[in-house]
Amino acid sequence: MSGVRVLVGTRKGAFILTADGKRKQWDVSGPHFAGWEIYHVKGSSADPNRLYASQSSGWFGQVIQRSCDGGKTWETPGGGMTKTPDGMPAGESNKFVYDASPDTGKPLTTHQWYDGTQHPWEFKRVWHLEPSLTDPDTVYAGVEDAGLFRTSDGGTTWQELAGLRGHGTGPKWQPGAGGMCLHTILLDPSNPRRMHVAISAAGAFPSDDGGTTWKPINQGLRSQYIPDPTAEVGHCVHRIALHRSRPKVLFMQKHWDVMRSDDAGESWREISGNLPTDFGFVIDVHAHEPDTIYVVPIKSDSEHYPPEGKLRVYRSRTGGNEWEALTKGLPQRDCYVNVLRDAMAVDSLDACGVYFGTTGGQVYLSADAGDSWTPIVRDLPAVLSVEVQTLP
Amino acid sequence: MIRVVLPPHLRMLAHVRGEVMLDVPGQVTRASVLAALEAQYPMLRGTIRDHVTEQRRPFLRFFACERDLTHEPPDAPLPAAVVAGAEPFVVLGAIAGG
After folding, report:
1. Chain A residues with CB inside 8 Å of B46's CB?
2. A136 within some domain
3. What are B28-76's pLDDT values in tens digits?
């Protein structure tokens, strides 16, 4: 029987939740890397037992962990006693150094600081790890301060795809309250050279040549918190999602506004419709229905909890604009948790499972595409990310 | 042998318990001790000092023999008791809540 493996990153470690295809009985392992912040854990679709985790700490910086057995054991790639050809110990798996070489288009610019002055790029952490769809040794990493890195040796070494920061708009990017982070990486399953990234607060950017060249695609976005609300860059995109059968249709949860593009991001239109608030962080798409999408509305940018203390997932079956509240099994009073941008995922079982984690430490599952919910775990540390693997 | 005390998170990362024992060639300084530490435990590279600049991470301090050595030059000799193995070189993380 098929099964699912849920990979949960929290403020104080990683947890792995596993169940068979019925999704009734759950085994919880962890905390892995206890006490460290785990921003993201994700598995390779080319080899489901290959997992990567971003482990970080304000004291000790960034560490990358890798598992080759589905999370039973972990290693720091290159951080063991492996020797390089010149006899030195390897160990650069946590080395993320921005490209400053002149032959990549002078990428090491400055960016805009909170007060509008220019500020140098400073690496802080990896927010998101996106394994290649075809090669378990190739992974993309979205980092703060916003940049994109790639490994092709299983996480042992990382190189920046410097054309993103260097394409010209970098000096206009600015941090939001959570930092200036590259948090979304979408790989196009129909075109291995095409990908999208999203940055807070800069916007969305595609590449059609495997990450070498980039451009902004923010036409139609409107943000009141920048001097020109329709500027080319500066928009605080929180999350973008797509359905693998229709990769040119993109759904976006922006700081405010839920947006949709039908032309791979060339233009966007608002689909907030009847949502009680269109602020939020997560957005995801049903595994089998490309026009069924999910968001979790949050009251406002200054009150990061659900409106009226009611935790509600909203589902649209029409690709936006018409939304229904999903409440069965979710707390409908006195609930003041948040659901962060990487903390929602879907499985691909016949009855699509939808999962999300909260800053209150709950991971909720709906095994019926959102109609009803149940907590898998209730008392983890604050959840930063949730990913799901559907296992054969 | 030089004795080094690491904070718990770094002991976990290096898969060690208790003190770390290091053979440090040449003069025993903070820089040479950290270089020997990173050579023996490559997973610790970048966690105590920056990969490129070798600057100390801001929330970390260095103590030995009841002295704060954090702001001593990295190439200054460490106390004789550390060199002799009588006292450990301590890498300490700032106290934190949460």
Report:
1. 61-62, 94-95
2. yes
3. 999 999 999 999 998 999 999 998 888 999 999 999 999 999 999 999 9
